[in-house]
Amino acid sequence: MRIEKHPILEVRRPEPFAFFFQERELLGYPGETIASALFANGIRIFGRHHKDGSPQGIFCANGQCAQCLVLANGRPVKACMTLVEPGMHVAPIDGLPQPPHPPGHLEFREIEEVETEVLVIGGGPAGMSAALELGKLGVKTLLVDDKHRLGGKLLLQTHRFFGSREAVFAGTRGIVIAQKLASEVQAQKSVEVWLNSPALAVFSDKKVGVLKEGRRYVLVRPKVLVVATGARERSLLFPGNTLPGVYGAGAFQTLVNRDLVRPAEKLFVVGGGNVGLIAAYHALQAGIEVVGLCEALPECTGYKVHKDKLLRLGVPIYTSHTVLAAHGKEHVEAITIAQVDEHFRPIQGTEKTFACDTILIAVGLDPVDEFYRKAREFGIPAFAAGDAQEIAEASAAIFTGRIAGRKAAQALGYAVEIPPAWEKTAEILKSKAGKIHAVPKPPAGLAVFPVIHCAQEIPCNPCSSMCPLGLIEVPKEDIRLPPRFVPKRECAGCGRCVAFCPGLAITLVDFRKDLEYPVVTVPWEFEPPPVGTEVFLVDREGADLGRAKVLEVAHIPGADHTALLRLSVPKDLALKVAGIRVKKRVLPEVPKEVGPIPDEAIVCRCERVRAGEIRALIRQGVRDLNEIKAVTRAGMGACGGKTCRNLILRLFREEGVPLEEVTDFVSRPLFMEVPLGIFAGMEEP
Question: Which fold has domain 1-101?
Fold first, then answer.
C-alpha cells in the first residue's frame, strides 16, 4: 500500500529492513513511523481497547491521542510518533498497557537545566519564521519540536500556497517552503534546534519541561516564550466514529504526503473547509477514489477554487448534509449522510449511503494554546503565532511567526521595529473566503488571452507577478480582490499565469491558428493523458461541456510538476472551459434509511464513554465537566480530554444548557503522558 508514483512528490526510498508485528515479518524503511509501516503492510487494527474490545488504529497521527498505542520491543509507545527500527518487535497491547520489567539496578542523573533568551515551541511555519527573525538578530534561541523533521504541516502540503508572493512564498508548494525555512533556520548560528523533543509543561517557577530527543527530561528557563504549536482537529459524534478508517485530515495527509502510504481505496470527506477540500484533492493525486464530500453549511467555507477543482474532477459535493453513521464491524465499510434543515437537523428520507473504506473528518481546528495560557498565568513574557494564535492558512502562520519573533526580541530590549504594514498584511493573510464576483469576459477581438476563473475575494497575487508583460493586475493595497486581465498590450500566450496559479483557475485561449477551433490551455497536476487522448471538457464548476482531444502536453521551467494541456475546442465553448476530466463522472449513491444518532456514539475515545452516559448526567443536573470525568472517566484518558471536551460541550448545547453555566475541565499539568522515572532523571533506553 505504498505509493510508487506521484504527480508532485518524488518517490525515492532507501533500502528496506525487516521488523515484526505479532511475530509476522514485515518490511519497513528508515525514517518511517511504526504506524505508517503497519499501514503500508495493510494493517489497520493495531490493538483492541481494554474496556470493550473495540478495534484501535490510527486517529490523529500527531501524538495528541493514544489510539495507536502498541508495544515496541516490550515498551508501550505511540505508533504515529515512534520510528520503526530494524528487527523491532511490535505487538498489540492486550488489556491495559503494562510497564516493561525494570532492570535490577536503576541509575538516575541530575536534571539538566538550560537557559536561553527565547524558547520557541513548535517547528512548523510560524515557529521557524519566528526563529529566523530571532536568528538574524543574533538572539540566543532554542527551537523545540516533537517531530523528527522541521516543517510541521508544511511537510503535508503538496499544493501551491496562496497569499502574497512577496511576503510568504505564495505560488510555491508547501513542501518546498518547508525545506527553505528549515535550511535557513539551521543556518542561524544563534538558533539551536531540538527535534523529537516535545514540550511537556510550563511551570510556575518559569521553567518549561522538555523531553529532549524523546529520552531525557530537561528544564528550560527562557526569558521569553514563543508558542507556535499549531492546532488540533475537531471530531464529530456519530455511530461508528471510532472505527479504524475514521480519522482527521492531518493523519490522512501525514500518511499520504509525508510517508507516501496509500491508506485508502475509497475515501469520503466530511467537511468543506480548506482542509477538507485540499485533503480530497491530495487523495486524488495519490490515486485514491474520493466518492464524495459533505458539508453541513449551505456552502463550502473553503476557497471556491479548491471546491471547483474537485467538481471538475467529478467529486460529488453535498452541501447542507451531515454524516449520520459509519458502518462496519472491524473497520469502515460505508458511510451514511443526510440533508439537514436550517437548524442542522437531519431530514428524514434524504439519507444516502456510500461504500468507502476511509472517512476523513475535517470539521475545523482548535488552537493548541495551553503553553501560551500557562505562560501568561505564570508571568512569563509570551507571544503566540500561527494557529496557536488564530486559526488561519499556513501563509498567515509564516507572517505571524515573523511578527512574534520580533515582538520577542523587543521584549528582550533589542532595537528592532515591526513595520506598521506587517500587521495589515497579517490581517489580510488571515482573511477567510469572501464575496464572489461575476467573472468578467475578456475584450472581443483579441487573438490570445487568459480567462480568469477565480472570482472570489481571497488573499492571493502570484498571477500578477508571473505575467512577464504585467497584463494581470491584483490591487497591491488589498490582494484579496480578484485579479483582472488588463490588455495594455498583446498577450504573448506564454502560459505562465496558467502554470503558476495556486488555484488552477486560469486558462489560456489562443485563436492565432484557428478561429473556429482555438487552442485552450488548461493546468493539470496528475499523470498527463497521452497526446491524442479524448477528454471531457468541464466548466469551472464541473458541468460537462463536451469532448476534446489533447493536442500537446507542455511544461514551463520552474512550474514544479504543473503540466499544461493544450486542447482543440469549439469557439463557443472556449471561454467556458476551465478544466478536464479523463473519465466520465459516476455518482456512487444508494439510498438507505437510517434512524437518528443513538446514545451509543462514542464521545471519549480513550475511555470508550458513550453519549448516553453523559446525556443522562446532564439531565440529572450535572454542570461540571470534572464531575462528569469523575463519574464516567471521560477526559481521563491519555489525550487528557483534548478530543472529547468539545464533544461534551456540544452535548450540553444540544440539551439546551448555556455554556456559561458549565464548569470546564481543570487542565492537566502535563501536555502528554510521560513515564514517571523520566522526571527523576532516568533516561529512556
Answer: Ubiquitin-like (UB roll) (3.10.20)
